[in-house]
Amino acid sequence: MTRAQTVRDRIVDQVETSGFVAHGLHVRVASDTAEHRWTEDVREDIHSVAKGVCVLAAGMAADEGAVSLDEPVSTYLPDFQLGDGADEVTLRHLLTMTSGIDLPWSETLMTDWPDLAREFLRRPSSGRTFQYSNASTYTAMTALAARVGDIGDYLAPRLFGPLGIDDVEWERSPQGRIAAGGGLSLRTEELARLGLLIRDRGVWKDRRVITSGWVDAMHTNWVVAGESPTYDRYALAGWGGPGPAWRLHGAHGQLLIFLDDAVVTITADDHFGADDVATFAVETLIAARES
């Protein structure tokens, strides 16, 4: 039995013992894979894991010289009204949630104002303080689109095409922009392809899709995000933990968990059980590595 199969079987047992409402599981350890399904394999919203896709989009655009993550976003959106201090906010600040602009999440976030990105930037910035906000990622992609065009169209030949993921659907705002911080639907195995690209630092089947530095930035140069375990540090879309691992984490249990040569992909519909299953997955990877 391979390490991937061992890890899969232990996670399956834990899911079924704990009652965690999982949909799909994909385990990759080195070159070995193992999968399991609890529900039909259909595309479903990966929620905030989509923030990682937005980081890849920004990194690709930076590689092409279209943008700089450290240039004020007002450069790309010159007709936007800016709140006090918002003129200093960069794409990196938006993607690391450190713009200092206060605009919390709501179920009607996309339609609460005539234009969410304009509302976000017209508010004052308190400096480099952390606030997790879908509006922040949405504003980043609004600025990026001003340079590269529609983000979905931009990523089709650069990211999704190379990964063999066709006809991608991404929820849209009333302005026709991608929802950015969520609303992207993928199958478990398609999400696992994204995870493998990230594990391999931007290389897919011997083809470099994005420079390695942008992938590394997903889990380095952490900013302080709070005191709650596994939510205490954040980078470019990545959360630190559990333990020595790091992850992309979407609502209701959408997970890409990275540790050394392994990536565990989980899709689910269980918001409050996700932290425990992520911790168990990391403990299982460590045990399999040491056995």
Indicate the low-confidence ranges by residue numbers.
none
H/E element sequence: HEEEHHHHHEEHEEHEEEEEEH
List the total number of helices: 9
Major beta sheet, specifics? Answer: 6 strands, antiparallel
Shape: globular
Biggest sheet strand line-up: 2-1-13-12-11-10
Distance between the termini: 13 Å
From the alpha-carbon coordinates, what is the Rg to the nearest angstrom?
19 Å
The portion of residues assigned to helices is 25-40%
Q: Number of DSSP strands? A: 13
Query: What is the structural class?
Result: alpha+beta
If you had to describe this structure to a student in words, what would you say it looks like?
The protein has nine helices and 13 strands. It is an alpha+beta fold and 291 residues long. It has a six-stranded antiparallel sheet, with helices on both faces. The protein has a three-stranded antiparallel sheet with strand order 3-5-4. Strands 6-7 form a two-stranded antiparallel ribbon. Strand 1 and strand 2 form a beta hairpin. Helix 1 runs antiparallel to helix 9. The longest helix is centred in the C-terminal third of the chain and has 17 residues. The model has no long low-confidence stretch (mean pLDDT 97).
